[in-house]
Amino acid sequence: MELKHISELERATQKGRIELFRLGIGLLFIIGVMLYTIARGEAQGSLFIVIAAMIGGYMAMNIGANDVANNVGPAVGSKALTLGGALVIAAIFEAAGAIIAGGEVVGTIRSGIIDPNQIPDGDTFIWVMMAALLAAALWLNIATALGAPVSTTHSIVGAVLGAGIASSGLGIGNWDTVGRIVISWVVSPLMGGVIAAFFLYVIKRSITYKADLIGAARKTVPYLVALMAFVFAVYLMLKGFSKIWKVSDAQAVVVGAAVGVLVLLVVRPLVAKRAAHIANSKDGVNQLFTVPLIFSAALLSFAHGSNDVANAVGPLAAIVEVVTSGTGEIARAAPIPMWVMVVGALGIAVGLGLFGPRVIKTVGSEITELDKMRAYCIAMAATITVIIASQLGIPVSTTHVAVGAVFGVGFLREFLKSNYARMLEDIKAHHPEGDQEAIDAFMVRFTKASVDEKGRLLAELKRQSKQHEDPANFSKTERKGLRKVYRKELVKRSQVMRIVAAWVITVPASALMAGLLFFTIKGMMIGA
């Protein structure tokens, strides 16, 4: 065999070796969880605790691989962070959020999705929780392999519902709660998309549509960064630190306002200094958003770790409570031992490092092209949507919100591009055919004009056209043809369909798997 053929063979097998390495490290982590649990003496209480801890570690890995992409994907896609840097920041702050602010108590039945009083005994409850945890983890693993960002909350909710129904029938489900979750499938991405599009439009009107981009940025960017600081401070007070101490809405707003004002005073001279050394272009303006995006990725990761660690360790904590209590009674809330929290935090970090890049790339670059200004809009939309939804009592998925914000940014860009193309058609239609000099002269004025001035120029052009017959004599069909030439799809429709399909089937898929796993576990335990 020639050397070049050997090299080609090595390249072909390299991807497989990398995947095997990742699987090996993941397996070692789960074995480590088993040994850690046994070393703590937990196996003396029940073998169930050891098995549940291993499944909980597996679940935490899959949360890190899939859900964390929402926090760092836009920053990576906009090149504010490298993939390696994003992985390090997310791993540190996810783990810190889980351990520092993850909370001492977690509901044993996630989101009240089923009625625990209808579960006949403690053993059945343990089987339900184990089946739910394993089913949710398996579904997240499948979604990650496909590169589809899905909701871990919806995964565990569907799994708990499916296992609960398998144990006690349809009557165990709290169907009002299920209905609210279904509604959130629509509300979450729409709200995130609208808010992200709004912020992007504000940035375009106040900065990128101006002739002096740097001058406009010098005035506007400090306020945008201060607004981000205000929103993130409120978010962290309500969602990140709420389990350490209770904070009212008013207190969170006051703290957020103070942080926002302080950041404004600090950032304004820094932006002015930086603006003096960058080009008067979009690329130059984008540089001003780099540091805020790094902070947003870190803070979102911290808040995510403090909240969503319950998805990984909630059922595990419930199993530990039932087994160690000795009464066999099913509690609605269970204390989370620190060792359980550590398993969840480390699992999220390991899963993120091993398998996170796939979904990060999907969110950051495979739906629509992102720059730093667009990534800023996505981070703001995700945070504001979660705050609003929490205050309204709407159960939203951070995954749906963040990906919906990416969609919103992309579709707004499509609309603006299409609208600009129609303006060009109007300009060409109202000048004599072949009079390129007149068209060029008008375009120079049009390009330099502000948004309002552009509207006045077009209105004047149309008024003149009504007084004189259109010399270019474009037909309606010809103008439609021109519009098609200029129209561009800036959001990949194939990705939209794939992600939405994954969202729709998350709850039923995890519920079906959990039901089957419950019957499998029950059969094994009764047979034993």
Structural features, described:
This protein has one domain (20-395, 501-527). The protein is 79% helix and 1% strand. The protein contains 18 helices and 2 strands. Helix 5 packs antiparallel against helix 6 (152-168). Residues 469-487 have low confidence and may be disordered.
How far apart are the termini? 55 Å
Let me know the number of strands: 2
What kind of oligomer do you see?
single chain
Give the strand line-up of the largest sheet.
1-2
Overall 3D form: elongated
| Total helical elements | 18
Question: What is the count of structural domains?
Answer: 1
Low-confidence runs (pLDDT<50, min 5 residues)? Answer: 469-487
Helix percent reads: over 70%
Mean residue pLDDT: 80
Instruction: Encode the helix/strand succession as letters.
Output: HHHHEHHHHHHHEHHHHHHH
Into which percentage range does the β-strand content fall?
under 5%
Main beta sheet: strand number and arrangement?
A: 2 strands, antiparallel
C-alpha Rg (nearest Å): 27 Å
Structural class by secondary-structure content: mainly alpha
What are the SSEs and their pairings?
Blueprint lengths: L2 H37 L7 H20 L2 H9 L5 H19 L3 E3 L14 H24 L6 H17 L6 H34 L4 H28 L8 H27 L6 H6 L2 H36 L7 E3 L2 H29 L5 H21 L5 H32 L6 H13 L2 H17 L8 H11 L6 H35 L1
Antiparallel strand pairs: 1-2
